[in-house]
Write a structure and sequence with these properties.
Length: 358
């Protein structure tokens, strides 16, 4: 979802950062009302890898902190460490478990060996928007749902928020005319691995692994023909001028992340603080997913206005893509079943939750 890194001196330790060090001009963001008695406050350190202005930070993370503070009557105070100030995305689970931070940006795709079942939300095909994915996953990840029981509980964390970008589309920078699935054969597309690679393989498309910041130069040079991205990401990474063709109405997967708190920290919180965090999470998941989908529609219109051809696979092509997506999902589930994980049961539960989330 985000692969940006903000470098910082190696000599600056997490302990120093917790003491209030300002890194590279990025001040720590504290959410707390003025005048509140210091002794009544509960300070929570929250960290992620998102750069300034990211769609998730602006529509989910910051509004959630503000709402939780309000619902707690000012008792909950957040110190926010964005942009990898506390560590890389892959390290957030360990940092949360160890207590270096209280709430971490835990992305299952970054730690797939520890949370393999959560990739169900990143599979192609079923969902049509961010709200469907977020609502369905949230219903299974909280309140002792199957994803909480099988993924979060064994890792000694509890999800407080979930975010998923709108379903990814194929975004092409080449001038090659595309009107059918067959026209995609042989193209080289940036993909993030896993189910995305499996999907492209079945379309006879060549998946290429690279970080998002590398995509612009690779597309402009023709090293790759395009990428799998949501339209909001196309805009974020300045790819709109390069885009000649993009699909609409398909779902080539997405990326999902959570903000999770350690069980140890959760156990120490008073009941009223827990209630504020839970209610803020429920309300913010709903408002944020609506914002993501609205911004996705606007970004699609911007692409169209910029001259990009928007292609929707219908009829035989739509049915063929649906079969491919089902094959990828079934293969994913079967692989987990063989490893002693409830892959098929999780896929069934997620599809049922998606149907209810429409």
């Amino acid at each position: 979802m985000n692969r940006h890194r903000n470098s910082h001196p190696a000599s600056v330790t997490p302990a120093a950062r917790l003491a209030g060090v300002v890194l590279l001009g990025l001040p720590l963001v504290a959410f707390a009302p003025r005048g509140e008695a210091q002794e009544s406050r509960i300070e929570l350190r929250i960290a992620d890898s998102l750069p300034a202005g990211h769609i998730i930070a602006e529509n989910l993370t910051k509004p959630w902190m503000k709402l939780a503070t309000e619902l707690s009557g000012g008792r909950l105070v957040f110190k926010y460490y964005p942009a990898e100030q506390m560590g890389k995305a892959k390290d957030m689970l360990t940092l949360t478990q160890s207590g270096v931070i209280d709430i971490g940006y835990v992305g299952p795709s970054y730690i797939s060996e520890k949370m393999p079942l959560s990739a169900v939300a990143e599979l192609p095909g079923a969902a049509t928007n961010a709200c469907q994915v977020m609502r369905a996953y949230w219903s299974l990840a909280k309140d002792d749902g199957p994803l909480y029981t099988n993924e979060f509980k064994p890792n000694r964390i509890r999800p407080l928020l979930v975010a998923a970008l709108p379903p990814y589309q194929i975004v092409l920078g080449s001038s090659k005319s595309v009107s059918s699935l067959k026209d995609l054969e042989g193209t080289k597309l940036r993909a993030s691995g896993g189910a995305q690679n499996l999907t492209l393989d079945r379309l006879n498309v060549i998946p290429v692994r690279m970080s998002p910041p590398e995509i612009y130069e690779s597309m402009s040079r023709g090293t790759i023909d395009g990428t799998l991205f949501s339209f909001v990401s196309v805009e974020s990474y300045k790819l709109t001028p390069l885009t000649k063709t993009a699909t609409v109405g398909s779902n080539f997967g997405t990326v999902l992340v959570t903000y999770s708190i350690s069980d140890a920290k959760w156990a120490k919180l008073p009941p009223e603080a827990k209630r504020a965090l839970i209610e803020a999470g429920d309300r913010t998941v709903q408002s944020a997913c609506a914002a993501f989908d609205a911004q996705e529609r606007a970004a699609g219109e911007k692409l169209k206005s910029a001259g990009a051809q928007l292609v929707e696979f219908k009829g035989a092509d739509g049915a063929a893509f649906g079969r491919i997506a089902d094959e990828v999902a079934s293969a994913w589930a079967a692989d987990l079943d063989k490893r002693g994980k409830p892959g098929t049961a999780t896929l069934t539960a997620f599809r049922d939750a998606l149907a209810k989330a429409k």
